[in-house]
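Fold it.
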Amino acid sequence: MPKEPKCQEFLYVDWFDLNNPHKMPHSEWGELKCNGKCDDGSQCKPHCKEFDIPGDGLIKKEWCACPESPKEPEHCHGVRETYRSGGKVIVKFNCHGDCPAKETDECKEVHRQVDDPPPGVDRRYIVTCECLQREAAPPKKE
């Protein structure tokens, strides 16, 4: 079973031009942030792995971990992933890893709206990954 997490990843997603009829609403994914303390008292920090691939695909993964064990954790955690696709760079936040109650829970992305976004931002969400109870499968139709 995965160890209890010490570090918690999160990032902000900011939305712009939600009320501007002359512009298309768009979002920007922020930098990865880390909360938590390690066994030695140090702060959790972002770690990354870059992939040198030709063409399109995953080029960078970022997660939070302690300096003494910078590998990607096995427990439920968020990963900020950067992809190259058709000449563009795309950022995504995906949930990876296991939950303590694997049979009933799954690692899911959670968005919570922030009450007071900074000036110029129409709406801000904090995004994390959490172990949530798996939704029951819908009944089969006969």
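The radius of gyration is 18 Å.
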